[in-house]
Amino acid sequence: MSILKDEKWMQHALQLAQYAETQGEIPIGAVLVKNECCIAEGWNQSITLHDPTAHAEIIALRQAGQHLQNYRLINTTLYVTLEPCVMCAGAIIQSRIERIVFGAYDAKIGAAGSRFDILRDTRHNHEVNCVGGVLAETCSHKIKHFFQQKRIR
After folding, report:
1. DSSP code of 52?
2. Residue 114 pLDDT more than 70?
3. What is the DSSP letter of 77?
4. Residue 21 among the catalytic residues
5. How far apart are the first and last CA of the chain?
6. Above 90 in pLDDT, residue 153?
7. Residue 146 in contact with residue 26, Cβ under 8 Å?
8. Is 108 exposed, middle or buried (0-12, 13-18, 19+ CB in 10 A)?
9. Share of the chain above pLDDT 90, in %
10. How far apart are CA 122 and CA 111, in angstroms?
11. Quick one: average pLDDT of 104-124?
12. How many angstroms separate the CA atoms of 36 and 31, rounded?
């Protein structure tokens, strides 16, 4: 996959993150791609849905499962603006996503190499190809700006 394609899809995820922010949610967006087509999208909805599992990645995985009529999301790439947490990493492994591309690293709870390295752990029955840091500065700024504004309010 070329860096230009990765950046294109990350821009799409950033638009979803922006939408999440307008809804009062932490601005994280996710896009699931198969054969260069978007098959699912998600943005954080934990606050809106009163659901701690309603992360952008989980929303996209659920939507993709319905779209494909399969819980195995084989030959797909997940683009997400922030490194997945442990919960999302587990769901990504279970869904058999082939590749994940994320923007900002999350030193506190990231599970793709920052705090934990769950996605590349060879003890699992499925390994995920991980690419981090795509449009990292833009993705990181979006989240940092959100929390700065929240503190001001």
Report:
1. T
2. yes
3. E
4. no
5. 41
6. no
7. yes
8. exposed
9. 92
10. 14
11. 94
12. 11
Residue type, 150: K
Structure tokens at 75: 């030959």
pTM recorded for the entire structure:
0.95
Q: How far is it, in rounded angstroms, from Cα 53 to Cα 87? A: 8
Structure tokens at 125: 């029955």
C-alpha dist (Å) from residue 9 to 12, 72, 80: 5, 21, 9
pLDDT tens for 27-57 read 999 999 999 999 999 999 999 999 999 999 9
Separation CA 72–CA 18 (nearest Å): 29
Look over the chain and give the mean of its residue pLDDT values, rounded to a whole number. Answer: 96
Among residues 57, 98, 127, 137, the one annotated as catalytic is: 57
> What is the token pair recorded at 106?
């999350």
**Residue 150, token pair as written in the block:** 């929240």
**Residue 32, token pair as written in the block:** 């699931």
The pair phi, psi for residue 137, each rounded to 5°, is -65, -45
